[in-house]
Amino acid sequence: MLHFFLLAGGRPEQIKARVTVDNGVASGKGFYVVVGAIGDWAQGRWWDYPLMGNAYSLSSFAGNYRPPATHPDYIVGKPGGCDGPCREVHFIFSPSADSATVNRLMQVNLSCLTRWIHPCRAEGDIMPSAWAQYELDYGRTIN
Asked: Is residue 134 situated within a structural domain?
């Protein structure tokens, strides 16, 4: 049923934003955007999937968060797996990241939420600048 809703131009979507305040000072920010994307015919059924963009700040990088040496203040990546088909690009940055870089990589293509002709289907559609940085860091990927 969802596939026909998507074909008719419907876009299930969700946008979340957050600001972290510590002792009256904004210490972090972030957002999460997800939109339903029309998939393709695979294994005898339509594989529609969520297309996600995620950006947020961390006070410091630890654990699995290891930025590349070329830009030690931020990470652009995609998750290693999800429950079922999905696509996501994420941008994680520290407080010491350059504000121009943060503004550039946090850009979201909001037309993905309403576009009927040529709907968004890939990570570069929802967060074009972040995805371009991902491809610079890790090379072009085939989706």
From this structure: yes
